[in-house]
Amino acid sequence: MQRLKQYIKSFSLWELLAGLKVTLRYFFQRKVTIQYPEEKTPTSPRFRGIHAQRRYPNGEERCIACKLCEAACPALAITIEAEPREDGSRRTTLYEIDLFKCVYCGLCEEACPVDAIVLTRHQDYHMENRGENILTKDMLLAIGDKYEEEIARDRREDAKYR
User: Among candidates 126, 127, 119, 104, which has minimal Cα distance to 150?
Assistant: First the structure.
């Protein structure tokens, strides 16, 4: 009897009908669709999007050229060159991040002792031409200047978890 029941189930495509039952159950429910460019889903303050370099309130860049972010990067996406300034401090002359190599792991952000390099929550960026995937120091500082208020707010919200 068990064998006959199994034969009937296989002949009637029982698994297919069970799957269609799930499909029909959701077919008549109200759909939830986000119209992406106009509507955006909320993102966490810990989301890892495009990189930015921050400045101190007096306008000086935070990066002290310690190269810890370069050493911590598992994908070797960060390139840093530095030289001393007249006042004896070191600052970067070259700071580049290759976005095609980057795996957005956040280790560069965690390694930075002065909180100079951060990953913002912005994910909607694109490249149209060759070479636009390399973020230079000036581009990173411009991104940081543009989103500084949001970055500072996200840092305050995330401070209790660090």
Answer: 119
